[in-house]
Amino acid sequence: MDGALYSIGDLARRTGLTVKAVRFYSDCGIVPPTDRSPAGYRLYDIDALARLDLVRTLRDVGLDLPTIRKIVDREISLPEVAAAHAEALAMQIRLLRLRRAVLTAVAKRGSTAEEMDLMHKLAKLSEDERRRLIDDFLDTAFGDLDANPEFAGITRSMTPELPENPEAEQVEAWVELAELSQDPDFRACMRRMAEHYVADRAQDGTAGVRRDPAAAVRDHVGPALVAGIDPASPQADPVVAAVMAQYAHDLGRPVDVDLRRRLLTRLDTANDPRRERYLQLLAVINGWPAPESLAPAFDWLIQALGARIPA
Q1: How does DSSP assign 102-123, residue by residue?
Q2: Per-residue pLDDT tens digits for 182-211
Q3: Which terminus of the chain, N or C, has less C-beta within 10 A?
């Protein structure tokens, strides 16, 4: 074993620390002197050098002095401290991501101080708080209508699940979605959509899940959009007829002016851009593929129906 003794200056040169830092750790009792020179200067052995190297490493990873003292005195084990510190760093990283997302959103949107404060609060919500906020929104939209078993699947498909370590864009999307879910007018719109769905299903009278009406519109209208057919032109008549025939079949009703007006009302409600934005944000948060926009198909059919319904 090396029996050499080192001065504070020697330790500073060997560890890369300043003389002031070595003296500080010695004064704190973390690296006590082994002996003293005849002149009274502190001297340290090879164990003190190793202890000081450990202290420097622990400080570099951000541990506080009381914790370092317990480690070097072997009151607690290094693996225990490392695990706790890793968790603390993970929490700090999550918080920094949240702050970055809020600041990025503020910069993009030109938000006021009040809006920034709201976004920061929304970003900092716990998982349980986020769940309650979304549950309240979904209950407003679908509450007391969920006797229909299809609504259980609908509510699940509309629930955002922010991952434990989200990317910045997922946090930004969550903040925007949370704000949107609190918009009373948007809530009322979603409620109307749900009520329309229930009313159509009640008139349908069939059991089980039937085809998504939005998908039916997309499939019938899509080719007309690609072909550039004017929705008010005679060339659009077969497309409108096919959509109305499908809708009439689903409801068990004949095609007439009232049925066209009924579908037009449904389309006007469903074509709210906030509904589509909610679905886009939901996909970002949940890591799903971006949803296809139905707005062009809805716009075309709304114009086509409007041109064929008497004033």
Answers
A1: HHHHHHHHT--HHHHHHHHHHH
A2: 999 999 999 999 999 888 877 765 544 456
A3: C
